[in-house]
Amino acid sequence: MATLESTMAGSPEKTADGRPAVEVAHLRKAYGSLVAVDDVSFTVTEGEIFGILGPNGAGKTTAVECAIGLRRPDAGTIRLLGLDPHAGRDQVREIVGVQLQSGALPAKLRVGEILEEYRSFYRDPADVGELLDVLGLAAKRGDYYRSLSGGQRQRLSVALALIGQPRVAVLDEMTTGLDPQARRDTWELIEHIRDRGVTIVLVTHFMEEAERLCDRVALIDHGRVVALDTPARLAAQARGGKSVRFLPSDSFDDRLLTGLPEVSRVEREGQHVVVTGTGELVNAVILALYAAGVTARDVQLDSSNLEDAFVKLTGKNLNKEGAQA
Amino acid sequence: MSSLSPSLSLALPPPRTPRAAAFGQVVLNEARLVRRQPTNMIGSIGLPVVLMIIFGELPSFHQPLPGYGGLILFDTYVPIIMVLGLTMLTLLGLPGPLVSYRELGILRRLSTTPVPPSWLLAAQVVVQLCIALAGLAIVNTASVVAFGAPVPKSAGGLALSCLLAIGGLFALGLLIAALAPTANSVNAIGRLALIPLMFFAGLWLPRAIMPAVLQDISNYTPLGAAVEAIQDSVQTGFPPAAPLLVLAGYTLVFAFLARRFFRWE
Which of B16, B25, B111 comes nearest A117 by C-beta? Predict the structure, then answer.
């Protein structure tokens, strides 16, 4: 568990500035009686990596497929760089690159042949050689698709999403099935692409991925957005703030601390005291104790992460296999 | 009043239909796949050629058929063999790749790009059409040159008959692609449909010596009509309207149904 402060420091705030790249408002989609997406709204700002996080079957993929115009929503409005994905279909296809979950390619085509084909679809495509270099597939250019490993296939799939030099890239479960090293390589690649100015929408059920890559995350469960914020703030929210745990040198009255504006709760765990609150919690607590002649020893700052946030907000564990990988 | 984020619209490229070059690339890769997985070419060109050679070498195939004015059995088999090649394409070559592309999510992937998935279907048709025409030309030419079959009386009639036969059969192939849920089921459907289709084409009992009832039925099956039209073009001249209309009708009906039922994902 990282401390709350260090996590917060690493997360730029992206909500306020920049133009919207993806706007989704009151999206709803049902398959028969099954409501897959229920009143989902979010806005992705140009240049950010936006995560859509949730357990399998939460409606993430449906929401994204509606957002890119692959499915027609039952209700709601969607704008991609200001365009309606259906009315502006041709323009949207040119500027939005998509990597769908679990797509394969013909076994007996070579990597280079596949990329050259998809390259020809776009007005201003990327250079095949350069893209293969960036993705670590340069040596595989002449190989058949069927000879590629799972990680290489996944990277080729990402390459196809990027070959048209899109302004927005939508990547659905791009690291599922990859080994930890390939996963970390892919993360670096995504950051590299964002640095080139591409807005990235990342659909994932993998907590560490969202925490590591995303500027902001929408937590989706049962077709609804249960929370939307930076990973660090979501984590803080899960605890109702931050907490400090310490061993007091002497007994004291809880009211000494509960009266402070920063403190929301005081609990005893054996000899230890756990104080939960917001703002300059640690300073406030220690100063108040000092004024009462009590010293705090063995001080531990506690913070929660996105995983805690998810458990708290949805009441379930996101994924065990992802957490271990 | 409609100043809907003008700066953004200006920055976006205007809509554009992808160029013919893109279609060329799609066709090129489909052609590569056919060359690298030659099963379909073996079925639709190799098998007819082998059958033609076998039939051409069998003495019994060169006896005149009694009561058919000098017609020999081999000559009646040339149209049947031509149609057999088309049928292999229809049942396997055309629907197989399309259904597996749907299974693999390739049609879906394409629908996220500027090129619609229908282009892949069109590219398949182009590639398979080339194979079909090559097979027909090889069998027809070789039967005349190597085995002394008659030179077609009506070249125009033969060309029209072949095109309508391709139309009706390719439309059937697309209908199979529309209805078959998996690539494996394409094979199952193909095996099931091949026997009755080829029976009425006369593979086991040439139409010339079929009982009248069977011949009447055969006239209204796609392969029976195709064999009739091709045979007439070769032996008597421009074929009568009936088989051509039957083929045109099948083309329209199968194409309509294929379009109606085709799923892109």
Answer: B25
